[in-house]
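EI: anyone free to look at a 287-residue chain?
SC: sure, send it
EI:
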Amino acid sequence: MTDRAVAVVRAGALTTVQDLGRTGYAHLGVPRSGALDPAAVRLVNRLVGNPETAAVLETTVNGCALRPRCAVTVAVGGAPCPVRVDARPAAWGTAVRVPAGSVLEIGAAVRGLRAYVAVGGGIDVEPVLGSRSTDLLSGLGPAPLADEAVLPLGPVTGVRGSVDAPPWPGPPDELVLRVRLGPREDWFTAAALRTLATRAYRVSPASNRIGLRLEGPALERALPGEPASEGMVLGAVQVPPDGRPVVFLADHPTTGGYPVIGVVREADLGAVAQAVPGTPVRFTAAR
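SC: here you go
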């Protein structure tokens, strides 16, 4: 086996391989997938000299630990977290050299939820439909990391970038999501539309890469039953029978049968990656 690889010492709660996603296959029922925080992916890839499309690791809550089989350059971004090489503190948010056989430990998130780990050359697992992303809904792409797994690395081809300080906005104290109403706002009462635009929600612990589930006031339906199943897009705010909105994220299904009251702007979804359970959420609605 090639020496250009990293072995997984500790997989963590949920660590997956992610890039910027597999676009253009929704008509075949294939979700986009990809990193929940694409800006963090672009930054850590830049720091180690990878193209922005290179695959990285997305950790959840408690990080992971890796042992490279060759000397590598890594960068950890996204949620702030302790970084150690052979138990010695290393820098977060910048390029770090890790010798062959050393253990790189990405610790638990200090704030936020998801850290991103770029390795020079990129995680070189076999692409599926043009992407190396793990899709938790469809099962496409590599399985979530498991202890003792070995991940191949691609060749180092670029020049490392640098920043004086990583442009990290920090996890949100409150999520403000801009939403364009429709296509099924007519399924809801005028009171429901006011509730969406004026009342506060909270991030539910049941949230995941498929959707941001919210706790808070129910949205009242104006029509009985459910609409026919139709296509779903990233950011769609679907409302199931209990009336609590669900914002579709990277691994969302491509079709759904509950009415969509609006669609969140994609630019606002990066902050969702770091929103811990209990984070307040407000929608600002516009036609």
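EI: The CA atoms of residues 73 and 275 lie 29 Å apart.
SC: 👍
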